[in-house]
What does this fold into?
Amino acid sequence: MDPVTQLDELLPMLKQLVAGVDPAQLDAPTPCDNFALRGVLEHMITGATVFSPAFRGGAPGAPPAITDVLAQFPVAMDDLQDAIHSPGALETIIATPMGEVPGEVFMRFTVMDGLVHGYDISTASDQSYNPSPELVAEADGFTRQAITDDMRDGDTFAAATEPPAGASPLVSLVAFTGRKVA
It folds into this structure.
């Protein structure tokens, strides 16, 4: 499954999760130690806003002023989905926090980030989250090759944790990114 197809599957699922968030849940903790639910949404809105112009062949954009995460989230995800369908988005070279990478590689990081943060959102808001096994397998295969020891700085990623016995592939992936899972 190519990364555009992966994002086309994932982004509507994330928007549906966020549509189900009660504003009273925005300060709820998530499995991502660095963020409450509001922080996860701010991080995702910022990433989509900054990198959508880059997928279109431009320079990364400026971080947005975030005033209402629940209203801004679907707008940012719609713009990201439009951007990944731009001509040349897979081939464009994007300046990222990890250095310059082809759009296809950065899309795979975006899938992994969104997939794992979807778990954070669903856990904090007590919602069901069931990405397809194929999507999880694709992201897991990429993630296990892409996350290097020097990325495990406790900020970008923490040390991998042990998933519970019999954990689903999604929970195993989430644990690999450094989250404590139940």
About this structure: The chain has one domain: 3-132. The beta strands are 93-96, 99-102. The CA atoms of residues 14 and 55 lie 20 Å apart. The mean pLDDT is 95.
